[in-house]
Amino acid sequence: MSEAPEITSARRILFVHAHPDDETIGTGATMARYAAAGAHVTLVTCTLGEEGEIHVPALSGLAANQADQLGGYRIAELDAACAALGVRDHRFLGGAGRFRDSGMMGLPTNDHPRAFWRADLDFAAGLLLDVIREVRPQVLVTYDPNGFYGHPDHIQAHRVAMRAVELAGEIAPSKVYWTAVPRRVIESGMKAFAESSDNPFAGIDNADDLPFGSPDEEIAAEVDGRKFAEAKFAAVQAHATQIPPTNWLFTMAGSFGGDFMGMEYYRLAVGEKGPGNGPYGWEDDLFAGLDVPATAPLSA
């Protein structure tokens, strides 16, 4: 990634993700929306995603158990995804390759000497604190304590982000959000795909059996990024080694379009909830309630 752009925007938001592609899948429309509005969007990715499953046969030799070059390849994929989303400030935590993808929970890769899962918490948080000191974001976005779905690197990203916020003291972001999906959204998807041959929820009968999903009352913000659904779709395509054309994301996008790709939800973990709408007062702006002027209108 090229040198980070000069920080001139009044609004500054920091996203902390575990692997390349996580930023797009979970928060791509939000990132694109704020970037288009002139906010300074910073993405910190904690690993190169070296243990990812390769879905491009011609690149299978890059796998961790072969040439072990997938991480370097995914840097280019992430660059392309960020370009599609309009995100110009991307960093790897501690520099590219400082921490390694730990693989799924319980695998031997969790014990690799550089596995992010094994990283000293205060050391890793200190690296993120350096970014906070430089960027001074008012808002930080990361995962919940379970890393959204239980991946060790996602859990560690949560721990590192929250510890960095704690260490930041007076310069800490005013608001911290965790990515979320309302349970009713999951249930709608399960119903819509119940008879489909490419059902992404196959084998799941109850939304409560999934490791994610939040009641409506626990959601704090609904970001409408439908205007940027195509940008998110392009970013998904950029992560070709990880997300094949048959992936459930493309299935959902084809069936629900912008409503699926563009609507993203968050729980508020730190800070005061700002003005919102609807029965639960969901915010439509992650800066809601903060005295920070918008660079440009945040219309969806």
From TrEMBL:
Protein's GO biological process: mycothiol biosynthetic process
Reaction(s) this enzyme catalyzes, per UniProt: 1D-myo-inositol 2-acetamido-2-deoxy-alpha-D-glucopyranoside + H2O = 1D-myo-inositol 2-amino-2-deoxy-alpha-D-glucopyranoside + acetate
Cofactor binding, per record: Binds 1 zinc ion per subunit.
Entry's EC annotation: 3.5.1.103
Cofactor: Zn(2+)
Keywords assigned by UniProt, alphabetized: Hydrolase, Metal-binding, Zinc
Lineage: superkingdom: Bacteria
Pfam family, any one: PIG-L
InterPro entries membership: GlcNAc_PI_deacetylase-related (IPR003737), LmbE-like_dom_sf (IPR024078), Mycothiol_biosynthesis_MshB (IPR017810)
Binding locations of Zn(2+): H19, D22, H154
Protein family: Belongs to the MshB deacetylase family.
Stated name of the protein: 1D-myo-inositol 2-acetamido-2-deoxy-alpha-D-glucopyranoside deacetylase
Gene that this sequence comes from: mshB
